[in-house]
Structure prediction request, 241 residues.
Amino acid sequence: MIPLLRTAAAVALLGIAMPALAQDPHPSHPAVKPEAPPVTFHRLEQGNLRFTKGVARHPAQTLAVRHALANEQHPHAIVVTCSDSRVPPELVFDQGLGELFVVREAGNELEPLVVASIEYGVANLGVRLIVIMGHESCGAVKAGLTIPDGQSTGSPNLDALVSAVKSNLIDAHLTDADRHDPKVVKASHANVDAVTRQLTERSQLLKAKVDAGELAVVSAIYSLDTGHVDFWHTEGLVPSK
Prediction:
């Protein structure tokens, strides 16, 4: 993985700011309480349904909302997704300004500063639901499938990305058909599964929250064709059928 850049700014953020605010995620607005994960999950499901049907409301985008958010934010979900320009979480879930804390990285890969960003959203902003959202036809996943082991992309940074995706797919049991699927559906699911698992393996802060029932982490795949988001690992968030 790409090594953590230990800049003065990063040290200040992780070593000073987070512990100072971790006890009170909304110091300027103590009355604001984070939404319970099932409430947030339902909100995202309904927003995506509006998006797929072409009846998006485009909420919380007024001048008044922008002014109200100038000094504070209270997002209700963290969405960790790919950098792909076709996968904008605020549009996909029909959410507005200040409603989603979005972390984007090609292939959803969890390099240290990405994990730190997620920890910030949980510890400082009080977010209680994390969505790890991949997408069909992901270029990073395709690169992990097609670039031969040991072959360089010509960039050490891109090599690190490809290596991370390859590692995520080792135990995916992909068939030749899966590897040649132009939408790389099964491989994209496997990559998201791996990232979801790694999140609590790489962050004791997040693991402690999950173990205490204070934080939920769900997996998702976005369809470029339909606009639909398919969720899994949603135990406890939706009624059992």
User: Anything to note?
Assistant: The longest strand covers residues 129-135. The longest helix spans residues 185-202. The two ends are 40 Å apart (CA to CA). The chain has ten helices and five strands.
